[in-house]
Amino acid sequence: MNITNQIYLVFVSLIALTNHGLVAQEVGFSKAKEHVKAYNFEKFDVERFSLYSIGSDSEKVFFFYENLKDRKGKILFIQNNTLIDASKNYSFAIPDKESDETGYITTRSVDGRFFFYCKDYFDDTSDYGYSRLFIYDSGHEYFLDSVYNADKKIHISFSTGGRYLLVNTLNTYADYYNPEQDNRIMVYDLSEIGQGKINREYIPCMHCSDSYLVGDNLFFTIGRKDGYNGFSNKDIYMAPWRSLQDSVKIAANTDILAISPDGKSILGTRFWDRQKSTAVVVDVEQKRYQMLLGRDYAEHNAFFFPFDSKFVFDFKGYLIYVDFPEKYPFDALKWRNEQIPDWTDEEFWRPYEHTPLPEK
Prior knowledge:
By secondary structure, the protein is mostly beta strands. It has a domain at 1-30. It has helices spanning 3-27, 179-182, 346-349, and strands at residues 34-38, 49-56, 61-67, 72-79, 82-85, 104-111, 114-121, 130-137, 140-148, 155-158, 164-168, 184-189, 199-204, 208-214, 217-224, 233-240, 248-251, 254-259, 265-270, 278-283, 288-291, 301-305, 310-314, 318-322, 330-331. The strands form five sheets. Strands 5-4-3-2-6-7-8-9 form an eight-stranded mixed beta sheet, with no helix packed on it. Strands 18-19-20-21-25 form a five-stranded antiparallel beta sheet, with no helix packed on it. Strands 1-24-23-22 form a four-stranded antiparallel beta sheet, with no helix packed on it. Strand 3 and strand 4 (72-79) form a beta hairpin. The protein is globular and about 60 Å long. The relative contact order is 0.12.
């Protein structure tokens, strides 16, 4: 290659880089502002394990740890950047493999004084089985409901203030669909649980899931048919509590990961913009969003941390707190924003990458 061609290629590359920069500046791309806090879990076997947050009380965030070698689990919380074993206080929700009479404990969630969990049962190997839902409070276990198909992923959330427990059973897989139970929001009023009374209500809601009651507003997703006859294409809606008919669409093709306690921001994931699952923060009032760029946030467990008022991602050894975006440049009601380049355009996305985390 002669010197003229070399100069030409350098010139073309500079133009491309400049154009990328101008597009990014004009549209409003930005790297997520984050605060990384390392935590230590050297006391636990970390060769093959799972670790995910299951909620919080007024002082700390809880995690469920499972050793995938022997399937033994623990309830943990973080103190002074170290995971502390609190299993002795939650022995009722620890066993993962028990006899057929007591069931296989799966989904767990903590909210203040309440601890939700479900037990899965299979009558025989060819049966879909069923799940029984329980809530534990002040030394007492209360049965809530029974759900068909023990393999289903159950979504649960507590309302702000903790009065209501909301449960959804709709899954994205077509072969798990059970219209009788899946097209509703299961609501449990816990205000009289101290007297041994739990009021139950089923709110009809076609293809609804991911329900959250924040203040007086109900947030939820409605699944639309995908190419596999499932319901993985989800749109986010908001409605006044008890007025589902007044629902307003907040975002298209967006899954909910967490919602801020004031109901103003939704942490979610979107796929079609970059052709890759990407974490986003949606501004509810504007119905606009910003992507969280810098890491594969969407691949990690996330929650809202009440003490720092931030969304947090758990990178197994690191908690990454992300600031709320300064701008929300993208229309959340669009199923895809065309000005966002495909994730395979590595040259474009490289300036938005954070330094990799040190290996634990």
